[in-house]
Design a protein that fits this description.
single chain; about 90 residues
Length: about 90
Amino acid sequence: MRNGKGSDAEVKMAQTASESLAARLRDLRATAGTRGERLRVIDPGIVPQRPSSPNVLLNVFAALLLTVIALGAYLTVSFSYQRRREA
């Protein structure tokens, strides 16, 4: 004769398997009418602790570099214009 605890465990396992199969069958029936592919996210990823953008320090250095380049171009054109005017 079997132990009552063993039978309870078997019944629980059978119920769990039955519920799992019923859920799978519901999913299959729900998607049977659609013609597209079903997208399932395998790895949802993680949320970063701090935002990767905007990087303030990088933006400040980029602004300074652009300012130096623009100033050099302005001074070159300005001096070139003055030399032509004087000559």
